[in-house]
């Protein structure tokens, strides 16, 4: 039986679907043009995709994951204006794109081939947007002392949230934009927290040893679960705090164009999961 907290969080963060696991992409999709070496950063409602080829980094280094981006449509590849990025995300309901540059600048482009407008600096991903395209959550500062920021995409105003939760990472913004779930370690022990504007952060208590989001992709709110990655693979956590399923060796979860499945990467292949596929605990 769901707790009241789970019901409240579920109402704020609901989305989902149900079908069987299949290989992705389908032949008619823009993602059919994706190379096996490219990571899917985001998929728009019209099916257009932002993908990136990960550039080599020094072994065992803490260097940023740098991607050489491409814009995929049903007609093929389109020109990408600008250089390499740390991340790129569509703004829902628009053709605009948010990017984090290799200089950790947050920029907005009205389309992937349009000029960039600077929104913020010292920005670290992952980026998490609400379903209406009105806000984005991320972290900002001098690593490792990063703090949570929520930027209003209508006004361009960036607001620091929960300044006591430092260091913070991997924020997930609810679909209605009212709440952020993130990992923070203010007392030296990483834990999940729920943050709302004007309220004190609330710890989200999980069973001992539960995996926590580590990125580089943002956690995905999918149905009544939070889907995220760490170094071991992809995990599904019920919004009631109960672990669902852990899938080792899989990386980079991202919502599909219709929001009814989650795409993830394994050895160059792109997998598609539905809500039912992430139910059982393993």
Helix content: under 10%
CATH topology, by name, is: Neuraminidase
Distance between the termini: 21 Å
Low-confidence stretches: 1-20
User: Radius of gyration, rounded?
Assistant: 18 Å
CATH class identity: Mainly Beta
What is the CATH architecture assignment?
6 Propeller
Q: How many distinct helices?
A: 1
The total beta strand count reads: 24
Strand order of the largest sheet: 1-24-23-22
CATH superfamily, called what? TolB, C-terminal domain
Mean pLDDT: 89
What is the count of distinct domains?
A: 1
**Structural class determined from secondary elements:** mainly beta
Sheet of most strands: 4 strands, antiparallel
Order of helices and strands: HEEEEEEEEEEEEEEEEEEEEEEEE
DSSP strand content: 35-45%
Principal-axis shape equals: globular
Short description:
By secondary structure, the protein is mostly beta strands. Helices cover 3% and strands 44% of the residues. Strand 15 and strand 16 form a beta hairpin.
Describe this structure in words.
- This protein is mainly beta and 282 residues long.
- Helices cover 3% and strands 44% of the residues.
- The protein has one helix at 4-12, and strands at residues 22-24, 38-43, 49-54, 67-73, 76-78, 85-90, 97-101, 106-109, 117-120, 123-129, 135-142, 145-152, 158-161, 168-173, 180-184, 191-195, 202-204, 220-222, 225-229, 233-238, 243-248, 251-255, 262-266, 269-273.
- Strands 1-24-23-22 form a four-stranded antiparallel beta sheet, with no helix packed on it.
- The model is unreliable at 1-20 (pLDDT under 50).
């Amino acid at each position: 039986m769901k707790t009241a907290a789970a019901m409240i969080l579920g109402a704020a963060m609901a989305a989902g679907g149900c079908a069987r696991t299949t290989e992705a992409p389908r032949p008619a999709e823009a993602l059919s043009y994706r190379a096996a070496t490219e990571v899917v950063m985001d998929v728009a409602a019209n099916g257009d995709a932002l993908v990136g080829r990960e550039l080599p980094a020094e072994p065992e280094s803490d260097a940023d994951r740098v991607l050489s981006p491409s814009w995929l449509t049903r007609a093929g590849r389109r020109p990408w204006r600008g250089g390499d990025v740390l991340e790129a995300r569509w703004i829902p309901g628009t053709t605009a794109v948010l990017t984090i540059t290799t200089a950790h600048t947050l920029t907005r482009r009205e389309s992937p081939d349009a000029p960039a407008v600077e929104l913020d600096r010292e920005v670290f991903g992952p980026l998490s947007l609400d379903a209406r395209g009105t806000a984005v959550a991320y972290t900002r500062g001098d690593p490792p002392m990063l703090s949570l920021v929520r930027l209003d995409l209508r006004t361009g105003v960036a607001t620091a949230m929960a300044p006591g939760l430092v260091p913070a990472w991997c924020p997930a913004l609810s679909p209605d934009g009212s709440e952020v779930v993130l990992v923070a370690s203010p007392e030296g022990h990483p834990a999940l927290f729920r943050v709302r504007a004007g309220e004190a952060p609330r710890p989200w208590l999980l069973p001992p040893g539960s995996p926590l989001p580590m990125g580089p992709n943002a956690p995905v709110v999918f149905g009544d679960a939070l889907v995220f990655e760490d170094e071991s693979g992809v995990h599904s956590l019920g919004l009631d705090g109960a672990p669902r399923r852990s899938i080792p060796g899989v990386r980079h979860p991202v919502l599909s164009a219709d929001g009814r499945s989650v795409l993830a990467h394994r050895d160059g292949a792109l997998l598609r999961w539905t809500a039912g596929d992430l139910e059982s605990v393993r």
